[in-house]
Amino acid sequence: MKITVMTADEQIVTLDVDRDESVENLKALLEVETQVPLQQQQLLYNGREMRNSDKLSALGVADGDLVMMVSGAASSGSRAGAPGIELGFNQDGSAVNPSAFQQQLRNDSNVMAQLFQSDPELAQVILGNDLNKLQDLLRVRHRQRSELRRQQEEELALLYADPFDVEAQKKIEAAIRQKGIDENWAAALEYNPEAFARVVMLYVDMEVNGVPLKAFVDSGAQSTIISKSCAERCGLLRLLDTRYKGIAHGVGQSEILGRIHVAPIKIGSIFYPCSFLVLDAPNMEFLFGLDMLRKHQCIIDLKENVLRVGGGEVAVPFLAEKDIPTQFLDEERHAKEASSSGTQATSATKEHISTPGGPSGSTGKSTFQGPEFEAKVAKLVELGFGREQVIQALKFFDGNEEQAAGFLFGG
C-alpha cells in the first residue's frame, strides 16, 4: 500500500510499504528519504504517536493515508505549544489545528496536485475558506477509512469461520459478490470514467412556423410532439384538429389534445413540412420524434455531433449543455414520459376520431373565397403546383401566400 508522509518542513514523501510493516522500519525508510535520523523522528497518525514496535495494520493505517512526521526538537517544542502537534488529527479524524493544516497543504504544490487527482473534493475544500466544511470532510474521510478497515477485518474473520456454519458461508458468498462489484466499479472508474458523467440529451435549434425553439431529438419516440403552450406561441393552435384526441401511454400518460396535420419547420436554412401531436404536457415543449426523423431521412451523427437532415443536405450541431435552458435539463424525465406515446398513442387517436366522414368530412363553409384568394391560387398554380394542393396550403397558412409557397417548395 502507499502512504503519504508530511514532514515538519513541508516535505512530502510517498512510500510503498507493507501493511504489516513496523513503525521502526518505516522510520528507517524515512531516514533515507529525508535525512532525518530515526531517533529524532516522531510519527503521528490521527493525532496519536506511533510507537516503534507497532505494526501499521494494528494502528489502522490504510492505503492512501496521511502520516505526520516531526523531529525530536519539534516534538518537544510542540508540547510547549509549537505547531508540530497542531498539524495532527483528533480521534474523529478532524485536524487539531484546521487553519495550520490547511495552510500547510496549500503551500505544497505537489500535495495539492496529488489531491486533485485522488480526492478533488478535499482539494477544493482546502482551497476554500470554510474551515468547518474542511473539518466535516476530514471526519467523513475518517469514517470511510474506518468502515473500510471494519470490512477488511470482517473478511479476515470469515476466512477462519467454521466451514459448516451456514450463516458464515452466506456472509462469505455476499463478501465475494461485493468484492466482484467493487472491482468492476474500480475498473469502470479507470477505463470507462465517462460512464459516471451526466449524459446530456440531444437538442438542436429549429424554427416552428417562424418561432425559434430548442427541439429535443428523440428517436425513441414514435411521434413528433408539441405542447399546447408551445403550439399557441407558434400560432398553430388554431389548426388543432380535436378529432384526434386520445391518451398517450408510456412511463406516464398525457392527454392528446389533437393533431396539427402540417406546419413548416426550419432546420438550418431549409423548410420542411412537419405534423405533430399536441399534448397537454407543461413540462415538455417540442420533441422531434421518429416519424419526422424517418420522413426527412435524418441521421444522428454522434461522431461529428450533428443532426443531418434530408440525407445530409443540412447539418445542424447538437447543443452543448451550456446552450440548453436549465428547465429542459431538469425536466428531461418529463419529456421522456410525454414522448412515450409510441404505438399506444397511435391506437388511442384512432379510437377517438368521432367526426363522421374522417378528417376531410368538414361541412362548414370555407372562408377562403373571392377574387383575392383566387389570385393567390392562380399565382401559385403558375409555379407548377396542383390547384387542390395550393388551396390546401393556403388554408393551412391562413391565406399567407409566402408561407404556403415555402411549404410547397419544401415538400
UniProtKB/TrEMBL annotation:
What the entry lists under Gene3D superfamilies is as follows: Acid Proteases (2.40.70.10), DNA helicase RuvA subunit, C-terminal domain (1.10.8.10), Phosphatidylinositol 3-kinase Catalytic Subunit, Chain A, domain 1 (3.10.20.90)
An example GO biological process term is: proteolysis
The GO molecular function terms of this record are: aspartic-type endopeptidase activity; polyubiquitin modification-dependent protein binding
Task: Output the Pfam families linked to this UniProt entry.
Answer: Asp_protease (PF09668), UBA (PF00627), ubiquitin (PF00240)
Q: Which residues form the Ubiquitin-like domain?
A: 1-70
**Entry keyword annotation includes Metal-binding:** no
Does the keyword section mention Protease?
Answer: yes
Q: Which InterPro entries match?
A: DDI1_N, Peptidase_aspartic_DDI1-type, Peptidase_aspartic_dom_sf, UBA, UBA-like_sf, Ubiquitin-like_dom, Ubiquitin-like_domsf
> Listed GO cellular component terms?
cytoplasm
**Region Disordered: which residues?**
333-368
Query: Which SUPFAM superfamilies does its entry note?
Result: Acid proteases, UBA-like, Ubiquitin-like
Q: Where in the cell is it found?
A: Cytoplasm
Task: Specify the UBA domain's residue ranges.
Answer: 371-411
Keywords in alphabetical order: Aspartyl protease, Cytoplasm, Hydrolase, Protease
Stretches of Low complexity bias are at 338-367
Tell me the superkingdom of the source: Eukaryota
Which PANTHER family does the annotation name? ASPARTYL PROTEASE DDI-RELATED (PTHR12917), AT13091P (PTHR12917:SF1)
Family per similarity comment: Belongs to the DDI1 family.
Q: What is this protein called?
A: DNA damage-inducible protein 1
Q: Which organism is it from?
A: Sesamum indicum (Oriental sesame)
In the UniProt record, the gene name given for this protein reads LOC105175011
